[in-house]
Write a structure and sequence with these properties.
With 313 residues, the chain is mainly alpha-helical. The chain folds into two domains: 1-83, no CATH class; 88-312, Hypothetical protein af1432 (Orthogonal Bundle), CATH 1.10.3210. It has 14 helices and five strands. The strands form two sheets. Strands 1-2-5 form a three-stranded antiparallel beta sheet, covered by helices on one side. The structure holds fe (ii) ion (2 copies). One fe (ii) ion binds next to loops.
Length: 313
């Protein structure tokens, strides 16, 4: 939540707004310390206006907090289209990707009540249904998303890659895939509220910042642990998502091979996407670097499965 000029707003990503469709909520942009009422509720968001914002590098818009329900209804209307085979796949993968980013960005509020959490689960189920509806959809989503530019895109990419890898290594039960997907979207929830710039690469954090950063897995697990409606497996996946190698991760320096396979899948995808995001300009360079430097940190069959996934989709 963001407070602008005394009013409460929630940030929404530009990519979640569909061109030439009426938006049932007010949309604001914030430029040069000024809040501009960009679209009025009931007006269409014309494609040229979306393109113009994109060309200026504006990716984040704001809607008043009281419009959140309308915004969620609008997102759900998009989700209904995922199984609509007459809609272009690119449009549907855009909806799925932007839904995942939105869910990752609102997870800290979704965990507050069972009602909100079940809503999040229902939306995740719809994306999972879309992913399973046709071969290669998940890969198309990843290719379209590209290298993550921020934490939300990171969560979304980790989610999609982890779901592909999970299937590849034999994790196929719908309830396990739902658990993995929810955990992937929330795995870094413990970073919310930490006084660290999320854009600073881990290697460039000061020592006190690094110590604080290393608390985020347990902090995240603590945020969800007291919620009876959240599967304890998710708590555990969040708590252990930075563990790797033979005690090379944090916070508890666990051996990766002692952790459940679904945890290993989440951890390798998280580390792979981190390398993509923070160390390299292109996914190709990142892939090379990852396999050079990280090969010993995960069980070899899993590394091989990931390599295969990245090569063939
Ligand atoms: Fe993390
Ligand atoms: Fe992460």
């Amino acid at each position: 939540m963001t407070k602008l000029e005394g009013k409460e707003f929630i940030p929404v990503r530009l990519s979640t707004l569909r061109s030439d469709e009426v938006v049932p909520f007010d949309v604001f942009i914030y430029v040069a310390n000024h809040q501009i009422h960009y679209i009025r509720r009931g007006d269409p968001f014309e494609k040229n206006r979306i393109d113009s914002l994109r060309s200026k590098g504006v990716h984040k818009l704001f809607i008043p907090l009281e419009c959140e329900k309308s915004y969620l209804g609008y997102l759900d209307a998009g989700l209904q289209q995922l199984q609509n085979a007459s809609m272009a796949v690119e449009k549907r993968t855009t909806i799925a990707n932007s839904t995942l980013m939105n869910l990752a960005g609102s997870a800290d509020r979704a965990i507050e009540t069972e009602f909100r959490y079940r809503d999040m689960e229902n939306r995740v189920q719809k994306v999972l249904g879309f992913l399973g509806s046709e071969n290669g959809i998940a890969r198309k989503m990843l290719d379209q998303s590209g290298v993550a530019q921020d934490e939300l895109q990171h969560a979304s990419n980790v989610n999609t890659l982890a779901l592909i890898l999970a299937e590849k290594v034999g994790i196929k039960a719908p309830k396990d895939l739902l658990t993995l997907s929810m955990a992937a979207l929330m795995h870094d929830i413990g970073k919310v509220g930490l006084p660290i710039d999320p854009k600073t690469p881990r290697e460039k954090l000061t020592l006190p910042e690094l110590e604080l950063f290393k608390t985020h897995p347990q902090r995240g697990a603590d945020m969800v642990a007291d919620k009876p409606y959240i599967n304890p497996a998710i708590v555990s996946l969040i708590a252990n998502h930075e563990e790797m190698g033979n005690g090379a991760g944090f916070p508890n320096k666990k051996r990766i091979e002692t952790l459940p396979l679904v945890q290993q899948v989440l951890n390798i995808c998280n580390e792979y996407d981190r390398v993509c995001t923070q160390q390299c300009a292109t996914a190709f360079q990142a892939t090379k670097l990852f396999f050079l430097e990280k090969v010993g940190l995960f069980p070899l069959p899993l590394v091989q499965a990931l390599a295969e996934v990245l090569k063939t989709g």
